[in-house]
Specification:
alpha/beta; eight-stranded mixed β-sheet; four-stranded parallel β-sheet; 12 helices; 33% helix
Length: 399
């Protein structure tokens, strides 16, 4: 049996929720046919699994995208399916995710199951080096005072293809009326000329340039209207088909708009996975861009207290450090002792990412070495999510 765990890679075989009986039937027919490839949703796999024996997946390649939806929680049906497949068949499982990190205290895999996988990491550093057009990624934070709808145009460049994620209505940054927030953003850009009744696209005459901007509103949740604009976005073929997308809970995981140059997110996001998913919307390779930008628009504290400023600064550093910690942005650095002590041996090769430190101790056991080489990021993430650590860290900042 073989397993592969692929991190920070955007590929897909099984990835979106939703299921119909006809899809389950197609899944079952596939297993009995000579066809080689089936693309289906997580939900189709779960429902079809109830009607098959695990051994019917013998000699199959099962690739699961957005693997962070799996967990060891007994109520996680996808996790139950995966556990049964691994235990009772010889299927080769490929796990793919932009972040091997759920953002909660529940692990994706048990340590003994995770140890069965061969880990392959593909970070943005490697991704950008392999692109033809996109060569750089910027991450920035911008503070505002008052209402964000009045400040957003300070950083919203209408010449850049942009996805705007407005804050949740339950957040402190929200103005508590999501529809009105969209209207204010649109009004700040220009005057609404008309809305296409067939596609739902808003045609707005820019106040700054007089250009007609094509805007997609994914915040309004009338089913008929949303279906129209979603269908239009699925069929975007040209860089000129849409200019700005305004969203709340959509246009994140799995959403593909290669021309996007700027992911503008309003409000602090507590989920690292969500941040990584949003950044990923702007990091597709496309001939219209050589640089992509992620900007987080955050409310500026009113207080002048130095401790408040320090806390905000620490928060921003923590967000950026978390991304680095997950190896989403940067290559992995290896540390070695500058002068190995007697009895210490290290036969690994040095490269440009190897740093030698005076007094650095090598791991004393194979398990410790495995943790450092493969699991240190997940260990750090768990420590940083521990409730006692979260309570203690602010006091550490003040000391």
């Amino acid at each position: 049996m073989a397993f592969s765990l692929i991190g920070n890679l955007t590929l897909g075989i099984i990835y979106v929720p939703g299921v119909e009986k006809s899809k389950v039937t197609a899944f079952l027919n596939f297993l009995e046919s000579d066809e080689k490839i089936l693309i289906c949703t997580h939900a189709t796999l779960r429902f079809a699994f109830d009607a098959i024996d695990e051994k019917q997946l013998n000699d199959c390649l099962l690739a699961i995208d957005e693997f962070h939806h799996v967990s060891v929680d007994g109520d996680n049906k996808l996790g139950v399916v995966l556990s049964s497949v691994m235990e009772k068949s010889n299927a080769h499982v490929v796990a793919m995710t932009g972040s091997f990190f759920r953002g909660d205290s529940v692990p994706i895999l048990l340590p003994e199951d995770e140890a069965k996988f061969t880990k392959v990491k593909y970070d943005y550093y490697q991704q950008l080096n392999g692109y033809e057009y996109l060569k750089s990624l910027g991450i920035g934070y911008h503070f505002y005072q008052g209402k964000y709808t009045s400040a957003i145009h300070e950083i919203l460049d209408e010449s850049k293809k942009t996805i705007i994620h407005i804050p949740s209505v339950n957040s402190g940054e929200s103005e508590k009326d999501k529809y009105e927030e969209v209207n204010r953003i649109v009004d700040g850009l220009g005057d609404l000329d008309y809305q296409d009744p067939d596609t739902g696209v808003l045609y707005v005459i820019s106040k700054a340039t007089g250009k007609t901007l094509k805007i997609a509103d994914l915040v309004h949740d009338n089913p008929k209207d949303r279906d129209k604009i979603q269908e239009y976005l699925r069929n975007v073929k040209s860089v000129d088909d849409i200019d700005i997308i305004i969203a709340l809970g959509m246009a994140k995981e799995g959403f593909d708009w290669p021309y996007c140059e700027h992911a503008l997110t309003v409000g602090y996001r507590g989920s690292l996975t969500e941040i990584i998913q949003i950044i990923g919307r702007a990091t597709r390779d496309s001939e219209n861009k050589s640089h992509s930008q992620f900007t987080n628009l955050i409310a500026q504290p009113d207080a002048e207290d130095d401790l408040v400023k320090l806390s905000v600064n620490n928060m921003l550093k923590a967000i950026t450090a978390s991304l680095l910690m997950e190896q989403v942005l940067a290559p992995n650095f290896k540390f070695k002792p500058k002068f190995p002590e007697e009895g210490e041996e290290d036969d690994s090769e040095d490269d440009e990412n190897t740093l030698k430190i005076n007094g650095f101790k090598l791991p004393s056991s194979q398990r410790a070495k495995d943790i450092i080489e493969s699991d240190i990021n997940d260990l750090k993430a768990k420590v940083m999510q521990d409730q006692q650590m979260l309570k203690a860290m602010p006091w550490q900042c003040r000391s």
